[in-house]
Structures are given as C-alpha cells and as structure tokens.
Design brief:
mainly alpha; single chain
C-alpha cells in the first residue's frame, strides 16, 4: 500500500527524458504550512529567518511573526481565523500538528476542497484525492488515542462549532499525517510542516531517484539519476532517513505510512550482511562478522575471512549493546541529540561493534553532528573519518545526505588545518549537492564557496600549493580544482 492515490494515464510523454539534477516538479503549499517550533525566529508566511530579515510580531495574537506587510497581508486569509484563538490560548499555544489541522479545517470550510494543484498539463489533485487510510487508522489504538487528543486540543483551540464529526475528522487527519512534508530552511533545519497536493504523488524508496528541497515554502523535486523514459510513476523520494536497520526502517514505514517497503535496498544481501556485524576478535583480522538478527541457532558466528569463531560471551555482550543502543537512539534525532549520550554509546560499542555496523554508523553520525553543532571540530574530525566508508556504503555515493556529510567533514578538516583532505571532500560533495539542491542553493553558493576560500586564505597552504604547481609546471586555475 502506497502513500497516495495514483492518477491514470501518463503525466509526461513516455519518450521524454529527465536528466540528473533536472527539476521534475515544483509545488506550492496547498494548505498553509505551520511552523510552531520556529514561530519566534521565522516569518510565518515565507519562513524567512530572523537572522536575515527583521521580523515583527502580529499586534493582536503576539505569537506569529512576519518579515513584511506583504507577507502579513498574504497570511491574513487564514490568520484572521486563528488569531483570536492564539490570543486566547497564550501562553499555552497549541502544537504544530494541531495548528496545521486547524488551518486545514478553516480552509476546507471556506471552499478549499475545490482547490486543484496541477502536476501535469492535464492532471492535478484535490485534497479528497489523497488517501485517508481511514480503515488503517480505525484499528490502531495508538492512532485513535492521538485522534482523540487532537480533537480535544482542537476543541479547546478553535471551539466545538468548527470541529467536523469524528468520521470526517478521521479523513482529514489521515490525509494530513500521511502526506505532509517537513519543511527545511536553507541550512536544512526543520522549520515546520505543510501539505502539498501535487508533490504528494511521489512514492517512497529507501534509496530514492529524486530528492526534495525547499525555496521558502515551495518544494522543489529534482531527479538524482538520468531517466530515459520519464514518468512520475517511476519517481521515488525517501520518506525517512535510510540510515537505520532494514527491519526498523520497514517497521517505521508501516507504522507511519501503512505499507511494507519492498524496494531494492530492503532486499540487498550485501547491505543486510553488514548491518549487524561484530568486530572479529582476531587482532590480525578485525573484519566484520555477520550476526544474524533473529538467530535462534546455538552455533556462534564465524569470520569468513580468517575462520575465527565469535566467543559466546562476546556475542552476549554484543546483543546487550545493540539492545541498549536501539533503546537510547529511539528517543534521539540527528538534529536534537546529546553529545554525552552519544559518547557513552560509542564507548560501549567501541571494542565490539564493527565500523560497518549500522548502529555504530548511526551513533557516529549523531555524535559527528553534535560535535559540529557545538563547534568541537577536532572530535568531528575523528568521528567523520571513522564513519566515511560506512556513510558512503549505506547512503550510496549520490545521496544528498552523504553530500551534506562530506561538506561538514570538510569544515572539520579545515578547522584542523587539513586543507588538502578538506578540499577533496568538497570536490566529492559539490556535484552531489548541485544535483540534489541546485547550484544556487546556499549550501553551494555560500557555504561551499566560503569553505573553499578559507583554505586558500591560509598562507602555509597557499605557499605549499604554489610550490607544488611550480614543480609540476602547471598554471593556476579554478582553486577548487587544484591542491598541492
């Protein structure tokens, strides 16, 4: 079962080609995005950051902020309904999901059901065209409990007179929760969520052939691969981060999107063999040894390289570490994680898990981002170096997340004056990021360029580079293409 209802027919000509990096679709938010988590730092209409534009607060509700009178005017179609409710709720404002559902209810009551967003010349989507997963939600106790809470919160927020009956609300709730996008700012931080009718046509793959990014509130879908016979039916985006175990990834997709993923990575034997691996105890080998995840056999795993058998005590310790890691990481995210917790996990894993173990890789990635965010570039340098091979293996060499990882690793290298290696990471990251986000995205036009110039402003590095060029008899060219 997929996330969305498909339309019949061809969206684009069967013989039409789509090139790597080409924009295949753009979509405006059909139902106003909600940014409750960043209401104080972003314009509610266009999501402009307070770091780049001066924001002013709505004088009535004193909650939402805008960057211009034009944005305030555009937002008024919806904000005129929610403004009195926000003012009454202060300072106990509703959650982001409650605000998004409330906005959608206001819009649907005022003719929003008729709105169509085109995804081709002939075809488009209305809100009712989205799958509501009514029957799936009705039999799930966790979802019905959430529905009950949402209706209670909405009753408090906008009043009972605005609330649809439970059956209609379930239809609205299901369409929103399954089809909404998390919005990201220029630095790829989450700033809210919104519903995009046209963009909801894309189904999932754990390693996708399309990526999405945002220009303000507009979502932009780009092809990550060349497609000779383009069709939207063949386009896939990723609904979640693939950097987790196959079992956990498939369970998460079923829990939140109501389908069991059957894509190629979910059946990749090489990937599966590496996800749960222990470090060979032979100090002259140290190769990854596969540990069957649900193995009821009494036969301990054996290294295929040297023949060393894993000690039963070590295997027991491995299973305990994995259980502890999964439990700890279930309440963490890449954006919001505690460095001390990551360090504790890495210490426990260090002598047992192989460097290619998916849970070691995920923990290192979280620790790497925590170190970057806290300016601990020496630690980030070490974590990134250890994790590079595993990140490339699990994401693939063209995945946007791998490109962002390389960019951050280059930053760590530069702060540690490892300019040559840093520039190598930038050269690898640049084409990945250009394909996924476009050459004008701030990651490329600002961050990547800034890092490059940091390297070439260093006197020692510049002298070493010029000396190397003189010895080779070469001339100066684009600095990003040369290194000593």
């Amino acid at each position: 079962m997929q996330r969305c209802l498909r339309f019949p027919g061809e969206e684009r000509a069967e013989e039409e080609k789509s090139k790597k990096g080409e924009v295949v679709l753009t979509s405006e938010p059909s139902y106003t995005p909600s940014g409750a988590r960043t209401a104080s730092s972003n314009c509610d209409q266009c999501l402009a950051s307070s770091q780049k534009k001066a924001l002013f607060t709505c004088p009535k509700c004193q909650f939402l902020r805008y960057c211009s009178k034009d944005c305030e005017r555009k937002a008024s179609d919806i904000h005129r309904f929610e403004c009195p409710a926000l003012k009454r709720m202060a300072p106990d404002y509703p959650s982001e999901s409650v605000r998004l559902l409330a906005r959608l209810i206001f819009i649907l009551r005022n003719g929003g059901e008729k709105k169509v967003e085109k995804f081709s010349e002939k075809e488009g989507r209305k809100f009712r065209d989205l799958m509501n997963h009514y029957s799936d939600i009705k039999v799930r106790k966790d979802y019905m409990k959430d529905v009950e809470k949402m209706m209670s919160d909405l009753k408090t927020y906008i009043g009972e007179s605005f609330l649809p009956n439970e059956s209609d609300f379930l239809g609205i709730y299901g369409r929103v929760m399954v089809n909404r996008f998390c919005l990201h700012d220029e630095e790829l931080g989450m700033v809210g969520s919104g519903l995009y009718l046209a963009a909801s046509i894309f189904d999932h793959a754990c390693i996708p052939n399309c990526s999405f990014s945002f220009e303000g509130t507009k979502v932009v879908i780009r092809a990550l691969t060349d497609m000779d016979d383009f069709s939207f039916n063949k386009c896939r985006i990723s609904y979640l981060d693939p950097l987790q175990g196959t079992k956990e990834r498939r369970e998460e997709l079923y829990k939140f999107w109501f389908f069991w993923c059957d894509c190629k990575p979910c059946h990749d034997e090489e990937r599966l063999s590496m996800e749960n691996t222990i470090k060979c105890e032979n100090e002259h080998c140290l190769s990854p040894v596969m540990v069957p995840e649900d193995d009821a056999s009494s036969t301990p795993p054996t290294c295929t390289r040297c023949g060393e058998t894993v000690n039963p005590a070590t295997l027991k310790k491995y299973n305990e570490i994995i259980a502890y890691t999964k439990k700890t990481m279930s309440i963490m995210s890449r954006e919001e994680n505690n460095y001390e917790t990551c360090y504790d996990l890495l210490e426990k894993q260090g002598s047992v898990l192989s460097s290619m173990n998916i849970w070691r890789c995920r923990t290192l990635d979280f620790a790497f981002n925590a170190a970057i965010n806290n300016g601990c570039f020496s630690l980030a340098f070490d974590y990134g170096d250890e994790n590079k091979a595993a990140m490339r293996f699990y994401y693939g060499p063209d995945h946007p997340a791998y490109g962002v990882f390389l960019l951050h690793l280059a930053k760590a290298k530069f702060y540690n004056k490892e300019y040559k290696e840093g520039l190598e990471h930038i050269r690898e990251a640049e084409p990945i990021l250009k394909v996924a986000y476009g050459a004008s995205h701030p990651l490329i036009s600002e961050e990547l360029s800034r890092l490059t110039y940091i390297a070439y402003e260093d006197v020692e590095f510049a002298l070493a580079r010029r000396l190397a060029m003189a010895q080779k008899g070469t001339k100066e060219d684009d600095p990003r293409l040369l290194s000593p």
